[in-house]
# Entry
Amino acid sequence: MNLCGQPQNRGVNNFVGTLAFNRFEYCPSTTLNKAGYLDNSLRISPLNGYVNLNVNLTSGSKADRLEELRKKTSACTICPHLAKSRTQVVFGVGNPEAKLMFVGEAPGADEDEQGEPFVGRAGQLLTKMIAAMELTRAQVYIANVLKCRPDMPPNTSGNRKPTRDEMEACLPYLRAQVAVIGPQVIVALGATAVEGLFGPQKTPISRLRGTWLELDGVPVRPTFHPSYLLRNQNLTEKRKVWEDLLAAMERLNLPISEKQRGFFLKA
Ligand code: URA
# Structure
């Protein structure tokens, strides 16, 4: 039995469409227990043991509940190395009532400094992508799988990919954000975000994008990370990301103009 009282699912592959992915050992749907607490205790790596957020997610406005969760997340020391190295926890930003949520991989140096996800170069591109959807950052919600910047050796710049342990340790926070906000669509930005949400993938992000996955009942659209588009300015790659965003807009019943439909088809 897992912590949700369901049969243990270790290492089992679930299938979404034709795509196999490993839903590691957590409750397949988000449930609230009798006391109104999100029952997302997660059996995670030996590093972390069990995480139980113990945050009441049923009473108060979504903004209040997110704030409660933010406080809890900000005090997290499950990954002692990250608790030591971070400037601050980067919880998430945007509308607590958002219908659309973007999930990236982890804060970089800029995000660690400013306490807000996607504020560096990749973030500026994400903001433009959101604007192309005729939305603003304030209308959507933006978060990362990992809430702390992955630590780097002293006197080095750049970023490293979060480890599996780190991502598994942090996932309950993201799932709790999703449970409170209740978005209708999640866009997962890049292979690492997909890995953080669903476990390691055999299918590359180039084949996962263009499809729908599902997290706790919420449709998830994987797409390339904005930093990939910064490295690869090819129009066809921009178009692929744009088509994923159009698919998200369609799912949300957002208006789409003819002009928007034609973005990135020709230079
Ligand atoms: N900044 C973020 O907040 N997340 C990413 O994945 C990349 C940059």
Residues 1-50 have pLDDT under 50 and may be disordered. Residues 104-108, 111, 117-118, 120, 122-123, 144 surround uracil (CB under 6 Å).
